[in-house]
């Protein structure tokens, strides 16, 4: 049964074993789970210009457009583009109708994540449990059908204006959801370009207000049956360098991982405070994309114009780092050239790097992560990383 759930979980031309290596799955028994989640179903964005943003994810992130909804398909309110890379699915929405409610969201938050949609086997069971635990049900369970079958969906409220739509797509063969048609983008990847730049979503981080982190950790525990992951980062990262606290929750098989950050008081303005100010409240801060070749991914993205945080040379020249990380699959010089960070724990190591914010506001950004056994989040890199983030904050006049 455990295997079934795992092997079945939203995996699209990425094998179970690959996925296990990429995002660090664990065995678990879904029959004891009050809210069994199979996988991320989609990360849904509202942006100011979905037409252009969808193009950005194709040429800069190597994603493939597979679906579309818009005026031509009977959706007069907005355009929506469905993009895939391995098992990861993004949906990018932008208003067409000047009265679209998406514009209210965009006015308040700028480009951002509205929905971290989850694939579940039993929508009704999950909603019943969530309701009994006091969750706000935004959409009651209901069927949506077209000629490709039926999906059962519902939605619950998460932090800020973020929601979790629950999707049971076991009776559906269409490209995404009813209302969407299969449609490729006009962008053609250059001859010889890698097939894809990442294979899965590793984790999605939420920023919440001061004092709210534990509330949301308990929300995911109680309402959604998520477990606390081994890595609890607490006081050790609330230093004068960057003031934040972070805890991580995950679904039973660790396919879905949600770190939660809150600002902490320090000498300088927390990067979380900057986010909360410019996002207009809590929201999704970064999405980590799992790649099996981070050097290639960084090279490709950089060539397409994606900007990454700089890592100081001192990070690589520090003898403590070399002692701490030991042998990794690429020479340190190659990592240094690209600004890729390394962290090691008792299970293995990981390579990671962070982009600068990808929109106009200093809010949403991306992480690339290549795991080699480590189930962590790069705790050993926080200090180096925060110093880099703070240099950027200072340039924006927000420190
Ligand atoms: Fe992360």
UniProtKB/TrEMBL annotation:
Its cofactor is Fe cation. Keywords: Dioxygenase, Iron, Metal-binding, Oxidoreductase, Repeat. The keyword DNA-binding does not apply. InterPro entries: 4OHPhenylPyrv_dOase (IPR005956), 4OHPhenylPyrv_dOase_C (IPR041735), 4OHPhenylPyrv_dOase_N (IPR041736), Glyas_Bleomycin-R_OHBP_Dase (IPR029068), Glyas_Fos-R_dOase_dom (IPR004360), VOC_core (IPR037523). Residues 39-169, 200-356 form the VOC domain. The keyword Repressor does not apply. SUPFAM superfamilies: Glyoxalase/Bleomycin resistance protein/Dihydroxybiphenyl dioxygenase. One of its GO terms (molecular function) is dioxygenase activity. Belongs to the 4HPPD family. This is 4-hydroxyphenylpyruvate dioxygenase. The lineage of its organism: Bacteria, Bacillati, Actinomycetota, Actinomycetes, Pseudonocardiales.
């Amino acid at each position: 049964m455990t295997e079934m759930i795992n092997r079945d979980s939203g995996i699209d031309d990425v094998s179970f074993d690959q996925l296990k290596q990429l995002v660090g799955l664990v065995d678990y028994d879904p029959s004891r789970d009050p809210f069994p989640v199979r996988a991320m179903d989609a990360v849904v964005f509202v942006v100011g210009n979905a037409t252009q943003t969808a193009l950005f994810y194709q040429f800069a992130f190597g994603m493939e457009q597979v679906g579309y909804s818009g005026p031509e398909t009977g959706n007069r309110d907005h355009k929506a583009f469905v993009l895939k890379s391995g098992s990861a699915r993004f949906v990018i929405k932008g208003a067409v109708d000047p009265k679209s409610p998406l514009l209210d969201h965009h006015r308040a938050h700028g480009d951002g994540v509205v929905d971290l949609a989850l694939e579940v086997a039993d929508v009704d069971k999950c909603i019943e449990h969530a309701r009994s635990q006091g969750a706000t049900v935004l959409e009651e369970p209901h069927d949506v059908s077209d000629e490709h079958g039926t999906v059962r969906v519902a939605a619950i409220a998460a932090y800020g204006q973020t929601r979790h739509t629950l999707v049971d797509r076991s009776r559906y063969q269409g490209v995404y959801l009813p209302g969407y048609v299969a449609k490729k983008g006009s962008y053609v990847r250059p001859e010889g370009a890698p097939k894809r730049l990442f294979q899965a979503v590793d984790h999605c981080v939420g920023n919440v207000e001061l004092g709210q982190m534990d509330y949301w950790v308990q929300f995911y525990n109680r309402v959604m049956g998520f477990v606390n992951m081994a890595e609890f980062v607490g006081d050790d990262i609330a230093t004068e360098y960057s003031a934040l606290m972070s805890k991580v929750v995950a679904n039973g098989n660790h396919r879905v991982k949600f770190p939660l950050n809150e600002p902490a008081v320090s000498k300088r303005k927390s990067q979380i405070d900057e986010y909360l100010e410019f996002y207009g409240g809590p929201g999704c801060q970064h999405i980590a994309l799992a790649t099996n070749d981070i050097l290639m991914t960084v090279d490709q993205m950089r060539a397409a114009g994606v900007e990454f945080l700089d890592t100081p040379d001192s990070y690589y020249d520090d003898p403590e780092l070399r002692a701490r990380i030991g042998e990794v699959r690429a020479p340190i010089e190659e990592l240094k050239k690209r600004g890729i960070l390394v962290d090691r724990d008792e299970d293995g190591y990981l390579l990671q790097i962070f982009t600068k914010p990808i929109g106009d506001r200093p809010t949403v950004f991306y992480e690339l992560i290549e795991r080699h056994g480590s189930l962590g989040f790069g705790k050993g890199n926080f200090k180096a990383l925060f110093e880099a983030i703070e240099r950027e904050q200072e340039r924006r006049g927000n420190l």
